[in-house]
Design a protein that fits this description.
The structure is a homodimer. The first copy, chain A, is α/β, with parallel strands linked by helices. The first copy, chain A, is built from 7 helices and 11 strands. Helix content of chain A is 34%, strand content 22%. Chain A has an 8-stranded mixed β-sheet with strand order 3-2-1-4-5-8-9-10, with helices on both faces. At the A-B interface, strand 7, helix 7 and strand 11 of A face strand 7, strand 9, helix 7 and strand 11 of B.
């Protein structure tokens, strides 16, 4: 993908992994956080990552030609409002979130199977081309995963074919093969996949696993 | 797993693959169909598979020490009633079904994300130990898949730990490594997985892919 100005909404583990990955691949990144001046820990992190600036949610969204949503899934609607919905209009938005409900004994999806976080985002941003991506793998694997036998598939979903083609180029840069699973409604299943991922991690006691595909030799 | 009498409810592609697989591994199988005398095509199939007898749903369920549900997912409740719910009491029941709604443009889950086919089966059979298994792979791969780099994980879910341990032994026999993803509620995600599987197949134009896990070298 051509060098692009990228805004990352959310500065947790996922946001940082994506921000650093975009920067390492030559993109100009602003990582958005609610109160940049107060977030000294994020400042220290960003100082170690060339090409990553810190800004408000609004600055990250407004400045980015491409915007990545990397907040908690249950916080994403409010984060979009905080960033300013108008700042997403006409742009490619990558939704890397999962609407996890962690209030019970195990993780569950906070929205029903007749809907998904990806669809909610697409409805909240009717003028944007939302592609669900990155939500099915560990933050540590999102960019240049170094998995044996790769590149491995990254499953993506969205309604706009050119947008998905662009994300496919990006994923190739990042060491993945994009596998388009269909329209944004398929976010329901991409989000379900992470429930399995968590359950497997709980059994493994380790979190560096990713789903891939295998076919007969 | 020790040689066991197995009843398979459903004689479609999945039921046949499992019936033949159980038989090939030394188990005594009855494959259940609604009207055995009328199903000449199934009779011809069974004649080619030593160790597989044909019976009614009731005969398969009653005679099996272990019963496998392999009907269409949307037909499974009615199939259980036809077989006789009492014939499942106290037994290990493997639910290999997916409640797919194929009436729309693409596959969807016929029941909401607050429920799953696996849970419906477990509620319909409160005296049985239901394990969701086999529902995430192609019928042709269910037994001795011959996938490179194997054995690969087969994801399973259920509420009864010894039942899952038994299914784990079975899966080892069948060339898989069981990966227990938790209680039967996790059938929601195992069933979602097949939606992705179908979407990927539609893009590939081929159906011999399976999900597996990869970790860094």
């Amino acid at each position: 993908m051509e060098p692009t100005r990228v805004g990352v909404i959310g500065s947790g583990q996922v946001g940082r992994a994506l921000a650093a990955g975009f920067a390492a691949h030559g993109h100009e990144v602003t990582i958005g956080t609610r109160d940049p001046a107060a977030n000294e820990e994020l400042q220290a992190w960003a100082a170690q990552h060339d090409g990553v600036a810190i800004g408000t949610f609004a600055a990250a969204a407004e400045g980015g030609e491409l915007v990545v949503l990397a907040t908690r899934g249950t916080a994403v609607e409010e984060a979009i409002r905080t960033a300013g919905t108008q700042h997403f209009a006409g742009k490619l938005v990558i939704d890397a979130t999962n609407p996890l409900d962690l209030s019970g004994g195990g993780p569950a999806l906070a929205v029903g199977h007749t809907d998904s976080g990806g669809e909610i985002v697409q409805r909240a941003l009717p003028e944007s081309r939302v592609v669900k991506a990155f939500n099915t793998v560990n933050a540590g694997l999102m960019v240049d995963p170094g998995l044996p036998g790769g590149p491995h598939p990254m499953f993506i979903a969205g309604n706009d074919e050119p947008a998905k083609a662009t994300v496919g180029e990006l994923l190739a840069d990042f060491g993945w093969t994009a596998v388009d699973v269909g329209p944004i409604e398929r976010a329901r299943e991409l989000e379900s996949l992470v429930i399995l991922w968590v359950a497997i991690g709980q059994r493994r006691g380790a979190w560096d696993h990713a789903f891939t595909l295998v076919t007969p030799a």
